[in-house]
Amino acid sequence: MKTGITLLSATRDALLLRQSYIKIWCSQSEKLPNMVNSFLEVTYITHYDRERNWGRHVSKTVNLIKLSVGTEDVAGLAAWQATRRAQSEDGYPQHVTRMWPKRESEILNGGSIYWVIKGVILARQEIVRLDEYNSADGIRRCAIVCDNPLIRVAATPRRAFQGWRYLTPEDAPIDLPAGREDEEPLPAELSAALAAIGVR
Asked: Residue 141 and residue 33: Cα distance in Å, rounded?
């Protein structure tokens, strides 16, 4: 029994090991219960998919965060996204960026783009897909295509930065609770001041 526990414990860290090393552990799993055998098999396949980039197994989600330049409030962002210029061919809001995110699979595993308006994160949108965008200058760019509704989130201060950044789920602000998502938003400057003292 002690051997089985040791093997199971070692296999929980198997994603950090080389593929050949996991094969050795799997070959020793015959003496363990079926449940452990299944765990070993799934762990091996998961590692194999990630290591070789085969399949679409994803275990993590990551978000993006972006400044909404020139926007005064959430309503202004919604108004801009309603224009044809800011939409994809099938009518979704999109933001075109020069850099293609390397963590695409994690973004498309339920990630959102969080919008910073005048120094405060105020809203997010679920990311539908990433499209290749060929501009008139011939440079290949990435179009971040989003779902239509802007979801209000707890006002959270954020310093200015260039381009977009990754945002982990742990660092992302929470959605406003039911009953508050449609309330009239405060001016961005006031939201920033309140958020700075912990009032959201």
From this structure: 51
127-175 confidence digits (pLDDT tens)? 999 999 887 777 889 999 999 899 999 999 999 898 999 999 999 999 9
Q: What are phi and psi of 95, to 5 degrees?
A: -125, 125
Tokens of 77: 């962002």
Written as one letter, the residue type at 32 is: L
C-beta atoms surrounding 126 within 10 Å? 14
Concatenated DSSP letters of 127-159: EEEEEEEE-TT--EEEEEEE-SPPEEEEEEE--
Q: Is the pTM of this model over 0.85?
A: no
pLDDT in tens, 56-95: 444 699 999 999 998 999 999 999 999 999 999 999 999 9
CA distance 25 to 14: 9
User: Within 10 A of 163 (CB to CB), how many other CB atoms are there?
Assistant: 10
